[in-house]
Amino acid sequence: QVHLVESGGGSVQSGGSLKLACALNGATISAYFMAWFRQAPGKEREWVATSLGVGHSFYADSMNGRVRISRDIAQNTLYLLMSNLRPEDTAMYFCAAASNSLTMGSRYLNPAAYSSWGQGTQVTVSS
Questions:
Q1: Would you give the distance in Å from CA 127 to the centre of its chain?
Q2: For the segment 46-98, what is each residue's pLDDT rounded down to a tens digit?
Q3: Distance (Å, rounded) from C-alpha 42 to C-alpha 57?
Q4: What are the residues facing 87 on neighbouring strands?
Q5: Are 28 and 97 in contact (CB under 8 A)?
Q6: Confidence of residue 10 (pLDDT cuts 50, 70, 90)
Q7: Within the chain, where are the H helices?
Q8: Buried (b) or exposed (e) across 42-53, using 16+ Cβ within 10 A?
Q9: Is the separation of the CB atoms in 47 and 60 below 8 Å?
Q10: Which residues contact 56 (CB under 8 A, 6 or more apart)?
Q11: CA 112 → CA 45, 64, 82, 105, distances in Å?
């Protein structure tokens, strides 16, 4: 099972930007569908974005074009660039992986579709 390690979270003011990273250990990112989810206190885990491969990505409408998911094959790392952050973006952000030997279909926004998860990185946005 792939081991995922997130980093890059922190505290920023409203309107600021952050770039989250998710390093894969023990596996090659090319073999996985990858996604970012987030979870705020007292709320359900929310899908943010999915990368099915280089240049093949999907985004939650709620992010209003403020995020960009990417993967660096050489660094074996998934990224999430977030801009124009708002206080409502405050949450723990998790990356997730699912083997691309499976059929993902429309399940890419469902947490249950992913078998491996990182420990999360906290993003706090102040007004």
A1: 23
A2: 999 999 998 899 999 999 899 999 999 999 999 999 999 999 999 999 999 99
A3: 28
A4: none
A5: no
A6: very high
A7: none
A8: eeeebbbbbbbe
A9: yes
A10: none
A11: 11, 24, 24, 13
